[in-house]
Protein backbone atom coordinates (compact mmCIF):
# COMPACT_ATOMS: atom_id res chain seq x y z
CA UNK A 1 0.00 0.00 0.00
CA UNK A 2 2.71 2.43 1.02
CA UNK A 3 4.68 1.29 -2.00
CA UNK A 4 1.88 2.33 -4.34
CA UNK A 5 1.75 5.78 -2.75
CA UNK A 6 5.46 6.13 -3.41
CA UNK A 7 4.99 4.93 -6.97
CA UNK A 8 2.13 7.33 -7.58
CA UNK A 9 4.30 10.18 -6.25
CA UNK A 10 7.06 9.10 -8.62
CA UNK A 11 4.66 9.29 -11.54
CA UNK A 12 3.38 12.73 -10.52
CA UNK A 13 6.94 14.05 -10.17
CA UNK A 14 7.87 12.67 -13.57
CA UNK A 15 4.84 14.32 -15.17
CA UNK A 16 5.71 17.60 -13.42
CA UNK A 17 9.26 17.62 -14.74
CA UNK A 18 8.39 16.81 -18.32
CA UNK A 19 6.41 18.81 -20.83
CA UNK A 20 4.48 18.06 -22.86
CA UNK A 21 2.61 14.88 -21.95
CA UNK A 22 3.93 11.35 -21.64
CA UNK A 23 2.54 8.05 -22.89
CA UNK A 24 2.16 5.02 -20.62
CA UNK A 25 5.14 3.24 -22.21
CA UNK A 26 7.46 6.26 -21.88
CA UNK A 27 6.32 6.83 -18.33
CA UNK A 28 6.84 3.17 -17.39
CA UNK A 29 10.39 3.35 -18.74
CA UNK A 30 11.18 6.51 -16.85
CA UNK A 31 9.95 5.31 -13.47
CA UNK A 32 11.20 1.76 -14.00
CA UNK A 33 7.87 0.00 -13.45
CA UNK A 34 5.81 -2.44 -15.48
CA UNK A 35 3.43 -0.87 -17.98
CA UNK A 36 0.40 -2.51 -16.38
CA UNK A 37 1.35 -1.15 -12.94
CA UNK A 38 1.79 2.36 -14.30
CA UNK A 39 -1.48 2.11 -16.16
CA UNK A 40 -3.33 1.07 -13.01
CA UNK A 41 -1.83 3.93 -11.03
CA UNK A 42 -2.66 6.42 -13.78
CA UNK A 43 -6.29 5.27 -13.82
CA UNK A 44 -6.53 5.80 -10.06
CA UNK A 45 -4.84 9.22 -10.25
CA UNK A 46 -7.09 10.18 -13.14
CA UNK A 47 -10.22 9.40 -11.14
CA UNK A 48 -8.98 11.91 -8.52
CA UNK A 49 -8.20 14.55 -11.22
CA UNK A 50 -4.53 14.37 -10.31
CA UNK A 51 -3.62 13.42 -13.85
CA UNK A 52 -5.51 13.81 -17.05
CA UNK A 53 -5.34 11.93 -20.32
CA UNK A 54 -5.30 13.83 -23.58
CA UNK A 55 -8.01 12.11 -25.64
CA UNK A 56 -6.28 12.89 -28.95
CA UNK A 57 -2.81 11.53 -28.17
CA UNK A 58 -3.69 9.18 -25.30
CA UNK A 59 -0.83 10.73 -23.33
CA UNK A 60 -0.92 11.78 -19.68
CA UNK A 61 -0.21 15.09 -17.98
CA UNK A 62 -0.87 16.61 -14.57
CA UNK A 63 -4.53 17.18 -13.74
CA UNK A 64 -6.39 20.21 -12.39
CA UNK A 65 -6.40 18.95 -8.78
CA UNK A 66 -2.63 19.52 -8.69
CA UNK A 67 -3.22 23.25 -9.10
CA UNK A 68 -5.49 23.24 -6.05
CA UNK A 69 -2.74 21.53 -4.07
CA UNK A 70 -0.28 24.18 -5.14
CA UNK A 71 -2.63 26.97 -4.17
CA UNK A 72 -3.47 25.32 -0.86
CA UNK A 73 0.23 24.99 -0.11
CA UNK A 74 0.77 28.69 -0.77
CA UNK A 75 -2.32 29.72 1.20
CA UNK A 76 -1.24 27.70 4.21
CA UNK A 77 2.25 29.06 4.11
CA UNK A 78 2.52 31.39 7.04
CA UNK A 79 5.41 33.50 5.78
CA UNK A 80 3.69 33.93 2.44
CA UNK A 81 0.34 34.98 3.88
CA UNK A 82 1.91 37.36 6.36
CA UNK A 83 4.13 38.86 3.67
CA UNK A 84 1.39 39.86 1.21
CA UNK A 85 0.79 43.40 2.48
CA UNK A 86 4.43 44.01 3.37
CA UNK A 87 5.52 42.95 -0.11
CA UNK A 88 2.95 45.15 -1.83
CA UNK A 89 3.95 48.24 0.08
CA UNK A 90 7.65 47.54 -0.44
CA UNK A 91 7.11 47.21 -4.20
CA UNK A 92 5.20 50.50 -4.29
CA UNK A 93 7.80 52.22 -2.17
CA UNK A 94 10.79 51.30 -4.35
CA UNK A 95 8.91 50.75 -7.64
CA UNK A 96 10.60 47.41 -8.21
CA UNK A 97 9.60 43.75 -8.04
CA UNK A 98 9.52 42.10 -4.62
CA UNK A 99 10.11 38.43 -3.86
CA UNK A 100 9.67 36.33 -0.74
CA UNK A 101 11.51 33.03 -0.50
CA UNK A 102 12.15 30.12 1.81
CA UNK A 103 14.94 27.59 1.81
CA UNK A 104 13.99 24.23 0.34
CA UNK A 105 17.00 21.91 0.30
CA UNK A 106 19.78 23.74 -1.52
CA UNK A 107 17.33 26.04 -3.30
CA UNK A 108 15.27 29.09 -2.52
CA UNK A 109 11.61 28.49 -3.32
CA UNK A 110 9.85 31.70 -4.31
CA UNK A 111 6.56 31.70 -2.36
CA UNK A 112 5.47 35.22 -3.22
CA UNK A 113 6.29 37.63 -6.03
CA UNK A 114 4.94 41.13 -6.56
CA UNK A 115 5.50 42.54 -10.03
CA UNK A 116 7.36 45.77 -10.53
CA UNK A 117 4.44 48.23 -10.46
CA UNK A 118 4.95 49.69 -13.94
CA UNK A 119 2.50 47.77 -16.13
CA UNK A 120 5.26 45.94 -17.99
CA UNK A 121 4.91 42.27 -18.88
CA UNK A 122 6.61 40.10 -16.27
CA UNK A 123 6.84 36.40 -15.53
CA UNK A 124 5.30 35.19 -12.27
CA UNK A 125 8.17 33.62 -10.36
CA UNK A 126 6.14 31.94 -7.62
CA UNK A 127 7.22 28.32 -7.53
CA UNK A 128 10.63 29.03 -9.07
CA UNK A 129 13.61 27.38 -7.44
CA UNK A 130 16.89 29.29 -7.36
CA UNK A 131 20.16 27.83 -6.05
CA UNK A 132 20.66 29.49 -2.65
CA UNK A 133 24.18 30.76 -3.32
CA UNK A 134 23.12 32.57 -6.52
CA UNK A 135 20.45 34.83 -5.04
CA UNK A 136 20.29 37.43 -2.28
CA UNK A 137 17.31 35.66 -0.68
CA UNK A 138 19.38 32.49 -0.24
CA UNK A 139 22.40 34.32 1.11
CA UNK A 140 20.21 36.23 3.58
CA UNK A 141 18.69 33.00 4.91
CA UNK A 142 21.85 30.91 5.01
CA UNK A 143 23.87 33.67 6.70
CA UNK A 144 21.58 33.16 9.73
CA UNK A 145 21.29 29.38 9.50
CA UNK A 146 22.94 27.32 12.22
CA UNK A 147 26.64 26.66 11.49
CA UNK A 148 26.24 22.96 10.72
CA UNK A 149 23.45 23.60 8.24
CA UNK A 150 25.49 26.35 6.66
CA UNK A 151 28.58 24.21 6.18
CA UNK A 152 26.46 21.39 4.83
CA UNK A 153 25.08 23.77 2.18
CA UNK A 154 28.57 25.07 1.41
CA UNK A 155 29.75 21.49 0.88
CA UNK A 156 26.92 20.82 -1.55
CA UNK A 157 26.88 21.42 -5.28
CA UNK A 158 27.33 25.12 -6.10
CA UNK A 159 26.31 25.52 -9.72
CA UNK A 160 27.36 28.37 -11.98
CA UNK A 161 24.35 30.16 -13.42
CA UNK A 162 26.25 33.09 -14.94
CA UNK A 163 29.87 34.12 -15.24
CA UNK A 164 29.33 36.08 -12.03
CA UNK A 165 28.02 33.28 -9.85
CA UNK A 166 30.42 32.77 -6.96
CA UNK A 167 31.02 29.03 -6.58
CA UNK A 168 34.06 28.99 -4.29
CA UNK A 169 32.81 27.93 -0.82
CA UNK A 170 35.44 30.05 0.96
CA UNK A 171 34.42 33.17 -0.96
CA UNK A 172 30.74 32.49 -0.30
CA UNK A 173 31.45 32.02 3.40
CA UNK A 174 33.16 35.42 3.49
CA UNK A 175 30.17 36.97 1.74
CA UNK A 176 27.85 35.32 4.31
CA UNK A 177 29.83 36.88 7.15
CA UNK A 178 29.32 40.27 5.54
CA UNK A 179 25.61 39.51 5.25
CA UNK A 180 25.29 38.64 8.94
CA UNK A 181 27.22 41.79 9.84
CA UNK A 182 25.09 44.11 7.64
CA UNK A 183 21.76 42.32 7.89
CA UNK A 184 21.51 42.73 4.10
CA UNK A 185 22.41 40.40 1.25
CA UNK A 186 23.22 41.62 -2.24
CA UNK A 187 23.32 39.68 -5.47
CA UNK A 188 24.89 41.13 -8.61
CA UNK A 189 23.93 39.21 -11.79
CA UNK A 190 24.78 35.91 -10.12
CA UNK A 191 21.53 34.22 -11.21
CA UNK A 192 20.56 36.18 -14.34
CA UNK A 193 22.64 38.57 -16.45
CA UNK A 194 21.39 42.11 -16.01
CA UNK A 195 19.46 41.39 -12.81
CA UNK A 196 20.30 42.17 -9.18
CA UNK A 197 18.65 41.56 -5.82
CA UNK A 198 18.81 43.07 -2.33
CA UNK A 199 17.41 40.90 0.47
CA UNK A 200 17.04 40.79 4.23
CA UNK A 201 16.24 37.79 6.44
CA UNK A 202 12.86 37.32 8.09
CA UNK A 203 12.95 35.79 11.57
CA UNK A 204 10.37 33.66 13.32
CA UNK A 205 9.61 33.08 16.97
CA UNK A 206 12.57 30.73 17.39
CA UNK A 207 14.95 33.47 16.36
CA UNK A 208 16.09 31.67 13.22
CA UNK A 209 15.58 32.91 9.67
CA UNK A 210 12.35 31.43 8.32
CA UNK A 211 12.84 33.05 4.94
CA UNK A 212 13.77 36.33 3.35
CA UNK A 213 12.23 39.22 1.46
CA UNK A 214 13.91 41.07 -1.38
CA UNK A 215 13.74 43.73 -4.03
CA UNK A 216 14.78 42.38 -7.43
CA UNK A 217 15.38 44.33 -10.61
CA UNK A 218 17.75 45.63 -13.26
CA UNK A 219 21.31 45.88 -12.00
CA UNK A 220 21.74 49.42 -13.39
CA UNK A 221 18.93 50.64 -11.15
CA UNK A 222 19.51 48.58 -8.00
CA UNK A 223 23.28 48.62 -7.81
CA UNK A 224 24.22 51.82 -9.59
CA UNK A 225 27.19 53.14 -7.57
CA UNK A 226 26.66 50.30 -5.08
CA UNK A 227 23.42 49.10 -3.47
CA UNK A 228 20.93 51.96 -3.42
CA UNK A 229 20.73 53.13 0.22
CA UNK A 230 17.04 53.92 -0.19
CA UNK A 231 16.30 50.36 -1.33
CA UNK A 232 18.50 48.85 1.37
CA UNK A 233 16.66 50.84 4.03
CA UNK A 234 13.26 49.88 2.62
CA UNK A 235 14.14 46.17 2.49
CA UNK A 236 15.57 46.25 6.00
CA UNK A 237 12.54 47.98 7.51
CA UNK A 238 10.14 45.69 5.69
CA UNK A 239 11.98 42.57 6.86
CA UNK A 240 11.93 43.87 10.44
CA UNK A 241 8.20 44.50 10.33
CA UNK A 242 7.50 41.14 8.76
CA UNK A 243 9.70 39.43 11.36
CA UNK A 244 7.62 41.03 14.11
CA UNK A 245 4.48 39.67 12.45
CA UNK A 246 6.10 36.25 12.32
CA UNK A 247 6.63 36.34 16.07
CA UNK A 248 10.27 37.26 16.23
CA UNK A 249 10.77 38.22 19.85
CA UNK A 250 12.57 41.02 21.56
CA UNK A 251 15.43 38.63 22.35
CA UNK A 252 16.40 38.68 18.73
CA UNK A 253 16.09 42.43 18.51
CA UNK A 254 18.33 42.86 21.54
CA UNK A 255 20.90 40.42 20.14
CA UNK A 256 21.23 42.41 16.92
CA UNK B 1 44.79 38.67 -47.13
CA UNK B 2 42.72 38.59 -50.32
CA UNK B 3 43.60 35.07 -51.35
CA UNK B 4 40.68 33.38 -53.04
CA UNK B 5 38.49 34.82 -55.76
CA UNK B 6 35.62 36.83 -54.44
CA UNK B 7 37.46 37.25 -51.17
CA UNK B 8 38.34 40.92 -51.38
CA UNK B 9 39.58 42.51 -48.17
CA UNK B 10 36.80 43.77 -45.94
CA UNK B 11 36.77 47.23 -44.48
CA UNK B 12 34.95 49.36 -41.93
CA UNK B 13 32.24 50.18 -44.46
CA UNK B 14 31.49 46.46 -44.77
CA UNK B 15 31.06 46.17 -41.00
CA UNK B 16 28.73 49.13 -40.96
CA UNK B 17 26.68 47.69 -43.86
CA UNK B 18 26.40 44.45 -41.88
CA UNK B 19 25.18 46.24 -38.77
CA UNK B 20 22.68 48.29 -40.82
CA UNK B 21 21.38 45.14 -42.48
CA UNK B 22 21.04 43.55 -39.04
CA UNK B 23 19.27 46.61 -37.68
CA UNK B 24 16.85 46.43 -40.62
CA UNK B 25 16.12 42.77 -39.99
CA UNK B 26 15.60 43.35 -36.29
CA UNK B 27 13.21 46.20 -37.11
CA UNK B 28 11.26 43.87 -39.44
CA UNK B 29 11.20 41.06 -36.88
CA UNK B 30 10.66 43.28 -33.86
CA UNK B 31 7.14 42.15 -33.07
CA UNK B 32 7.99 38.51 -33.72
CA UNK B 33 10.97 38.69 -31.34
CA UNK B 34 8.84 40.35 -28.69
CA UNK B 35 6.14 37.74 -29.16
CA UNK B 36 8.69 34.94 -28.65
CA UNK B 37 9.90 36.69 -25.51
CA UNK B 38 6.36 37.08 -24.19
CA UNK B 39 6.12 33.28 -23.90
CA UNK B 40 9.23 32.82 -21.76
CA UNK B 41 10.45 36.28 -20.77
CA UNK B 42 9.56 39.92 -20.30
CA UNK B 43 8.09 40.51 -23.77
CA UNK B 44 10.62 43.21 -24.53
CA UNK B 45 13.37 41.54 -26.57
CA UNK B 46 12.28 42.89 -29.96
CA UNK B 47 11.56 46.37 -28.64
CA UNK B 48 14.89 46.54 -26.77
CA UNK B 49 16.98 45.18 -29.63
CA UNK B 50 15.30 47.53 -32.11
CA UNK B 51 15.93 50.50 -29.85
CA UNK B 52 19.56 49.48 -29.32
CA UNK B 53 20.40 48.95 -32.97
CA UNK B 54 18.60 52.11 -34.05
CA UNK B 55 20.68 53.96 -31.49
CA UNK B 56 23.85 52.19 -32.65
CA UNK B 57 23.32 53.27 -36.25
CA UNK B 58 22.92 56.89 -35.29
CA UNK B 59 25.95 56.63 -32.99
CA UNK B 60 28.04 55.42 -35.94
CA UNK B 61 26.61 57.35 -38.93
CA UNK B 62 29.55 56.54 -41.25
CA UNK B 63 32.70 54.46 -41.28
CA UNK B 64 35.14 57.17 -42.33
CA UNK B 65 38.10 57.53 -40.03
CA UNK B 66 37.23 54.32 -38.20
CA UNK B 67 38.79 50.88 -38.37
CA UNK B 68 36.45 47.87 -38.76
CA UNK B 69 37.22 46.90 -35.18
CA UNK B 70 36.40 50.38 -34.01
CA UNK B 71 32.98 50.31 -35.71
CA UNK B 72 32.10 47.01 -34.01
CA UNK B 73 33.27 48.27 -30.64
CA UNK B 74 31.26 51.48 -30.94
CA UNK B 75 28.16 49.52 -31.91
CA UNK B 76 28.74 47.04 -29.07
CA UNK B 77 29.10 49.80 -26.50
CA UNK B 78 25.89 51.45 -27.65
CA UNK B 79 24.01 48.15 -27.43
CA UNK B 80 25.32 47.55 -23.91
CA UNK B 81 24.18 51.00 -22.84
CA UNK B 82 20.75 51.00 -24.46
CA UNK B 83 19.45 47.43 -24.41
CA UNK B 84 18.14 46.35 -21.04
CA UNK B 85 18.13 42.95 -19.39
CA UNK B 86 20.50 40.22 -20.44
CA UNK B 87 20.41 40.96 -24.17
CA UNK B 88 22.37 44.24 -23.94
CA UNK B 89 25.43 42.90 -22.13
CA UNK B 90 25.37 39.64 -24.11
CA UNK B 91 24.88 40.99 -27.66
CA UNK B 92 26.69 44.27 -27.08
CA UNK B 93 29.52 42.60 -25.19
CA UNK B 94 29.87 40.02 -27.96
CA UNK B 95 30.12 42.68 -30.68
CA UNK B 96 32.52 44.75 -28.62
CA UNK B 97 34.81 41.77 -28.01
CA UNK B 98 34.69 40.89 -31.71
CA UNK B 99 35.68 44.48 -32.50
CA UNK B 100 38.55 44.36 -30.03
CA UNK B 101 39.80 41.18 -31.66
CA UNK B 102 39.76 42.86 -35.11
CA UNK B 103 41.96 45.57 -33.62
CA UNK B 104 43.11 48.65 -35.46
CA UNK B 105 43.83 47.13 -38.87
CA UNK B 106 42.06 48.83 -41.79
CA UNK B 107 41.20 45.59 -43.59
CA UNK B 108 40.31 42.10 -42.56
CA UNK B 109 39.37 38.83 -44.22
CA UNK B 110 37.05 35.92 -43.49
CA UNK B 111 39.65 34.27 -41.23
CA UNK B 112 39.96 37.44 -39.17
CA UNK B 113 36.19 37.60 -38.96
CA UNK B 114 36.05 34.00 -37.71
CA UNK B 115 38.59 34.83 -34.99
CA UNK B 116 36.63 37.97 -34.07
CA UNK B 117 33.32 36.13 -33.88
CA UNK B 118 34.99 33.52 -31.72
CA UNK B 119 36.13 36.25 -29.35
CA UNK B 120 32.51 37.44 -29.32
CA UNK B 121 31.31 33.96 -28.38
CA UNK B 122 33.90 33.75 -25.60
CA UNK B 123 32.62 37.02 -24.17
CA UNK B 124 29.02 35.76 -24.30
CA UNK B 125 29.90 32.47 -22.64
CA UNK B 126 32.13 34.20 -20.09
CA UNK B 127 29.24 36.42 -19.07
CA UNK B 128 26.40 33.94 -19.26
CA UNK B 129 28.18 30.65 -18.55
CA UNK B 130 25.78 28.97 -20.99
CA UNK B 131 26.52 25.86 -23.02
CA UNK B 132 24.78 24.40 -26.06
CA UNK B 133 21.46 22.95 -24.91
CA UNK B 134 20.72 25.61 -22.28
CA UNK B 135 18.23 27.34 -24.63
CA UNK B 136 20.16 30.57 -25.21
CA UNK B 137 22.03 32.60 -27.85
CA UNK B 138 24.77 29.97 -27.62
CA UNK B 139 22.55 27.31 -29.22
CA UNK B 140 22.59 29.29 -32.48
CA UNK B 141 26.01 30.89 -32.19
CA UNK B 142 28.15 27.77 -31.65
CA UNK B 143 26.89 25.73 -34.64
CA UNK B 144 27.00 28.86 -36.82
CA UNK B 145 30.70 29.42 -36.10
CA UNK B 146 31.44 25.73 -36.65
CA UNK B 147 29.71 25.81 -40.03
CA UNK B 148 31.45 29.07 -40.94
CA UNK B 149 34.85 27.56 -40.22
CA UNK B 150 34.05 24.28 -42.01
CA UNK B 151 33.10 26.14 -45.16
CA UNK B 152 36.24 28.29 -45.07
CA UNK B 153 38.41 25.18 -44.61
CA UNK B 154 36.66 23.59 -47.58
CA UNK B 155 37.72 26.54 -49.71
CA UNK B 156 34.50 28.54 -49.56
CA UNK B 157 34.46 32.33 -49.65
CA UNK B 158 32.95 34.68 -47.10
CA UNK B 159 29.50 34.68 -48.71
CA UNK B 160 29.20 30.89 -48.78
CA UNK B 161 30.68 30.56 -45.27
CA UNK B 162 28.15 33.12 -44.03
CA UNK B 163 25.38 31.19 -45.81
CA UNK B 164 26.37 27.93 -44.08
CA UNK B 165 26.61 29.82 -40.77
CA UNK B 166 23.13 31.28 -41.24
CA UNK B 167 21.67 27.84 -42.00
CA UNK B 168 23.35 26.36 -38.94
CA UNK B 169 22.23 29.27 -36.76
CA UNK B 170 18.63 28.84 -37.92
CA UNK B 171 18.79 25.13 -37.22
CA UNK B 172 20.24 25.89 -33.78
CA UNK B 173 17.50 28.44 -33.22
CA UNK B 174 14.80 25.86 -34.01
CA UNK B 175 16.58 23.31 -31.81
CA UNK B 176 15.77 25.50 -28.79
CA UNK B 177 12.01 24.85 -29.14
CA UNK B 178 11.86 21.47 -27.35
CA UNK B 179 14.51 22.46 -24.80
CA UNK B 180 13.88 23.36 -21.17
CA UNK B 181 15.61 26.65 -20.35
CA UNK B 182 18.55 26.32 -17.98
CA UNK B 183 19.67 29.96 -17.99
CA UNK B 184 17.99 33.27 -17.46
CA UNK B 185 14.53 34.04 -16.23
CA UNK B 186 13.05 31.50 -18.63
CA UNK B 187 14.61 28.81 -16.44
CA UNK B 188 12.23 29.84 -13.62
CA UNK B 189 9.43 28.45 -15.76
CA UNK B 190 10.96 24.98 -15.62
CA UNK B 191 9.12 22.58 -17.93
CA UNK B 192 6.81 25.40 -19.01
CA UNK B 193 9.68 26.85 -21.05
CA UNK B 194 9.50 23.79 -23.33
CA UNK B 195 7.83 24.34 -26.69
CA UNK B 196 8.97 27.93 -27.16
CA UNK B 197 11.76 29.19 -29.39
CA UNK B 198 14.43 31.19 -27.60
CA UNK B 199 14.34 34.89 -28.61
CA UNK B 200 18.12 35.32 -28.12
CA UNK B 201 18.89 32.39 -30.42
CA UNK B 202 16.48 33.93 -32.94
CA UNK B 203 18.31 37.27 -32.90
CA UNK B 204 21.58 35.40 -33.28
CA UNK B 205 20.27 33.77 -36.44
CA UNK B 206 19.49 37.29 -37.73
CA UNK B 207 23.10 38.32 -37.05
CA UNK B 208 24.33 35.60 -39.42
CA UNK B 209 21.53 36.18 -41.94
CA UNK B 210 22.60 39.85 -42.10
CA UNK B 211 26.22 38.80 -42.57
CA UNK B 212 25.26 36.54 -45.47
CA UNK B 213 23.26 39.28 -47.18
CA UNK B 214 25.99 41.86 -46.74
CA UNK B 215 28.66 39.47 -48.00
CA UNK B 216 26.57 38.57 -51.06
CA UNK B 217 25.95 42.23 -51.84
CA UNK B 218 29.67 42.96 -51.54
CA UNK B 219 30.49 39.98 -53.76
CA UNK B 220 28.09 41.24 -56.44
CA UNK B 221 29.71 44.67 -56.39
CA UNK B 222 33.22 43.19 -56.57
CA UNK B 223 32.31 40.96 -59.50
CA UNK B 224 30.89 43.87 -61.47
CA UNK B 225 34.23 45.62 -61.38
CA UNK B 226 36.40 45.00 -64.47
Structure description:
With 256 residues, chain A is α+β, with helices and mostly antiparallel strands. Chain A has helices spanning 2-17, 24-31, 35-47, 64-76, 78-94, 136-143, 147-155, 169-182, 219-222, 229-245, 250-255; strands at 51-53, 60-62, 97-104, 107-114, 129-131, 185-188, 195-203, 209-218. In chain A, the strands form 2 sheets. Chain A has a 6-stranded antiparallel sheet, with helices on both faces. Chain B has 226 residues and is mainly α. Chain B has a single domain (12-220), classed as Alpha Horseshoe (Serine Threonine Protein Phosphatase 5, Tetratricopeptide repeat), CATH 1.25.40.340. The longest helix of chain B has 26 residues, at 199-224. Chain B is globular and about 55 Å long. Chain A binds chain B through residues 16-20, 110, 120-123, 125, 127-130, 160-165, 192-195, 218, 220, and chain B through 38, 40-44, 84-90, 125-129, 180, 183-186, 188-192, 194-195.
Task: List the main descriptive attributes of the protein structure presented here.
heterodimer, A: 256 residues, alpha+beta, Arc Repressor Mutant, subunit A, Beta-Lactamase, 6-stranded antiparallel β-sheet, two-stranded antiparallel ribbon, disordered C terminus, B: 226 residues, mainly alpha, Serine Threonine Protein Phosphatase 5, Tetratricopeptide repeat, 9 helices
Amino acid sequence: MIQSVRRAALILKELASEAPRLGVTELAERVGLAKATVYGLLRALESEDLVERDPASGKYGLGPAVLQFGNAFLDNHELRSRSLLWADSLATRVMEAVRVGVLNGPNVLIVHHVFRPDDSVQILEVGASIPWHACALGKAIVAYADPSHRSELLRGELVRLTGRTVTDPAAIELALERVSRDGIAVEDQEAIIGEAEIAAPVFGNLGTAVGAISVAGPVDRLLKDGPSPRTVAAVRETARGLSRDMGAGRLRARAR
Amino acid sequence: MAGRDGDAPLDAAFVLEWIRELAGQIREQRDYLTQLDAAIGDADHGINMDRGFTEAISAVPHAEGRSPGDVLQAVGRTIINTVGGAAGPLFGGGLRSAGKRLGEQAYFDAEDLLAAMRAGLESIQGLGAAAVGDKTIVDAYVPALEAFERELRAGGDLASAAARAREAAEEGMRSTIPLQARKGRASYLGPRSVGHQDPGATSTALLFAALERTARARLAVTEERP
